[in-house]
Amino acid sequence: LAGRRIYGHLENVMKEVREERLGEIARVRELCPSWDGRVDTEEDVIIYARNTWDRIMDEALLREESVGESEESQEGGVISLSHIMDMGVGHVLIQEGLINDVSELECIVRQVVVQDAADNQKYYNPKKEPDAKHTNEDGKDLEMTFPIFMKALYQCAPQKEHHDGNYLMGVLQKVEEQALQQHQQQQHTGGLKDEDTSTILAAKSVYSGSGNTCKKRQSYNDRFDEYVSTFKLWEQKFLGNDISHDEAEAQLSRRMEILRGCFFGARNAKVVAALKIVYMDYAALRLAGDLIFKLMSKIAN
What we know:
Number of strands: 2
Largest sheet: 2 strands, antiparallel
Shape: elongated
Structural class: mainly alpha
Strand order of the largest sheet: 1-2
Strand content: under 5%
Distance between the termini: 27 Å
């Protein structure tokens, strides 16, 4: 039952994400009409740019400095200008001759953010006061969505030849390469932990959302970690003997088989990370997980 509910919940989430993605792509086609088309490789330029943005977002989430215990992470699809700068995007644009320095990029992004906020207020919520956070004079506080990022690039490329789709794809490829180089450098200097990607994202997901949400997630995170640690201790108790694998399998009852499955799951970092994220966010799985742990406790104790 819990599995079916989780599947239904995640299916709805994926549907919302796909719809939001399509909406952003459509918005960029309006904002950057010269880039709306296919290039020599028959690839859609805007979709390619959106895929690049996804990889930039993933890289930002993996950076140690992107989330701290005293701050909330950016919501999905949004990244601060400071993180964009950290990944060397400004350096690429300077090399391409699109901007003179990073302050020029900050100025362009600020103008685009202000205009985007004004457009949203005009069409979606005309009675709401403008959000001061988006117009902060400190460029590091500016938040960028995919449409804002693309509009800023569009304004950085005033010359006609820069509005060619092939040129844009070349710039985006260099942006990706620069971000990868920055990632490798940080790993080499110890700035990034050498951990599985899923483990890092699970740890950072604790700090996503409002303060109250973060506190709840931290509580669920700690409980889940305690479960995993306990299963590892139980594994030493039950499987740390001289019984062969086949003999042990023959002696396992149905609940013992579940317990053994928990042992194997607790050893797999990717399984642990994936279950932790869903456990923190979805009540049905927390209920099922807590119930399974209580049943396993009766066997172990």
